[in-house]
Amino acid sequence: MKKRIFAILLCAAMAAMSVAGCSQPTNAPASAPDAKAESAAAPASDKKVKVILITMDSLDQHWVSVDKGAKKAVEELGNVDYKWMAPDKKDDAQQIERVNNAIADQADAIMIAANGPDAISKTLEDAKSKGIKIIYVDSPAKTEGVATFATDNEQAGKIAGQQMLDALTAAGKKDGKIGIVNVNSATASTVAREKGFRSAFEGKGYTLLQTQYGEGDATKSQDIADNYITEGVVGIFGCNEGSTVGAGNAIKGSGKKDIVGIGFDKSDSIFSLIKDGSLLCTMAQNPDVMGYEGMKAAVKAVKGESIDKTQVDTGVSILKKDNIK
């Protein structure tokens, strides 16, 4: 009888221990952090990539087209917080201020067309030290960026020079003075265009006058071109949109349609001057491609994805009266 009672008590004790074991929480502390991690990760995947475009100014149609290309990429990509912040004129201090504003705004990437290779570099280095990706569109600074999307400006300038040379030769003018209206001596893109343009005339018998700078302002550039015309030039080259419009207006105002005007960039004003014969042609870049491809590269860089090409020539076209759309 005692053995039977002992057996019953032993079974009961074992059953109680089994139940207690089953009711014990299994790895509860370990599972809770996983759930929190998943909860925290979800909003992060929905976080928009913040990209800010900073151009040389907000006036030229060229920069409007860069913005347009960037917006097109944003529509396709989705989940991008995009803003265009541009100075109202070409000014190093204003551009530096815009970069500092982008840093304060906690941008993930900055797409920038640098006024010059030096002035903005230190500020861009500061941005990079905070993890901001730098993408160049049109004109780079000396600070290394993730990628650059720009025209081969020296080659494009040489093409512009060849266009003028061909026109002068066809008109029987095998010598004469030629004026160049540039933006300033620091903007890498326009300096390269001038270099290429001058190279086309090496050993050709023409006199290329000292370059004059109009800061990309059409009115200032026209005054410069007027002075060139007074000196008796046979041709004038404008290195950017404002320079081109100024040169074309000066030729138009002089009534001397035999002066060969060659420009750079495209706008309604430039097209009008080509159509009325004040300008022969313009070298048209593809700023919309710069903005579009630049935006895609910026988002890839922020996400840690590889970029196929980091140095891209976005090309140039020669627009004349017969092929302007």
UniProtKB/TrEMBL annotation:
InterPro entries: Peripla_BP_I (IPR028082), SBP_2_dom (IPR025997). Residues 55-305 form the Periplasmic binding protein domain. Keywords: Signal. It is found in: Cell envelope. The keyword Signal applies. Transmembrane segments: none annotated. Residues 1-22 form the signal peptide. The keyword Translocase does not apply. It comes from the Bacteria. Belongs to the bacterial solute-binding protein 2 family. This is Substrate-binding domain-containing protein.
